[in-house]
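Running this now, will post back.
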Amino acid sequence: MRKKALAVVLVFLIVAAPAVGASLKDLLKGSISAALDLFKREVMPIDGYESVEIGESFVIEGAHWYNPDYYVRLDNATVEFSWWIPRHVDVKVTVYKVYFGIIALHYATYDDIWWTKEKVGDGWIGAFFVWNFDWKRSGTSVAKKAYIAYNLPSAQDLNVKNVTILENGTVELLFEDNSTKLLSFEDFEGFGNVTVVNATYKCFRSLCIVRKKGGDEK
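Update: finished.
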């Protein structure tokens, strides 16, 4: 009877584990670079990644003053254990679309971006590693930091009607006023800057005011 119960537990843990090329235990006890390489192969190609602590935001800044910024705030990160074995990781974030660095619109709240991808503009984010949590026999452990990969938003926030990749690899942008601009593929894909800030958000429904805390910007 005990063997049968143990077999049921093992089957449950296998089914509950994420469908990746390494076990959840290996991911959490391995290195950041190994987890990132596996994430890039199995989930999405990336432009970069940032580590944020709970309550912090990493900011994808628009290329120009008239482009919005995206603030991705880490709300929570947890690891659930059963018999010392991690069986589930949950990383929760809230995304704000911010204009002029102050006025924000609530863009989305994602309850779980662990080992998956969710949209930010026409870009993507996904969490591939968590850090600074207690290893437990059972129950939930709070992780203080999460590592989040991203693909930068691109044409959607440039007020662009059409994007054409020419035969020589150059990207041609057609704007709403019918003007055009040529960019190298590297310049087009990598526009924008990414920073980490400690910010607060005061919201009335979906409209928010962003306030960066002095001296905490990284």
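The longest strand covers residues 85-99. More later if anyone needs it.
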